[in-house]
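Form P-L/3: holo structure prediction, ligand iron/sulfur cluster.
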Amino acid sequence: MDISKRHFLTSCGTLLAGISIYTVAKELAQTEAELGVDQTQTIKYAMVHDENLCIGCNACEQACREVNDVPVGVSRVVIKRTGPFGEYPDQSYRFSRLSCQHCENAPCVTVCPTGAAYIDSETGIVGVNADMCVGCQYCIAACPYQVRFINPVTKAADKCDFCKETRLKQGKQPACVEACPTHALVFGNIRDPDSELVKTLKTKPTYRAKMDLGTRPKLFHVSTINREIVL
Ligand code: SF4
Ligand code: SF4
Ligand code: SF4
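OUTPUT (holo model):
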């Protein structure tokens, strides 16, 4: 590749990253204004899954299962494989993370008749109070990301909570993040400009799933380079 072409592509990448960061900042600001979110809130947790670094090893799924006591047959996080893309022998796969997006405008919370589904005002984490859950499954039907399930042991709605009780309260990272051997997962406070999460968002173009629904998800994805765009 000649230098001028490489320079052009590099400039395009920088521009895309800039647009992405600007869009994210603008959208989050709009969200807070529109949804009446407390803008003085100092912690708002989010996650990035870098599909270029993910090797589909499923260590994150297993760590989540063990730490959060998730029964066999259900899962809080799934790494979905699609592909192969390209022609043999230059083929590649895409590994995408499916888990709760911790929406700022969460349909699961809106429809819950008992208040069991809630957004934690201190962290922005969308949680489930199992003691208040009556198992009506309204939240499961309302979630556009299809990440909720009824826990066969507790009989309550269940999903990823960023290890709020099992890890964050001890000052630790979520189990999936710690288990990932390639550092494909970055978790942190989107309010903290010095956090690794914000630095990642500032340097890598990201997308969020189903943004057109207005759910304002907080799970960001760095898109795989060698694949079709599948959102
Ligand atoms: S992804 Fe689904 S379960 Fe998670 S906050 Fe959004 S609507 Fe609720
Ligand atoms: S299943 Fe539980 S958390 Fe979901 S809407 Fe019903 S009561 Fe709320
Ligand atoms: S542990 Fe990391 S590399 Fe392995 S599947 Fe999960 S996100 Fe991908």
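COMMENT: Residues 111-112, 114, 116-117, 128, 133-139, 157 surround iron/sulfur cluster (ligand 2) (CB under 6 Å).
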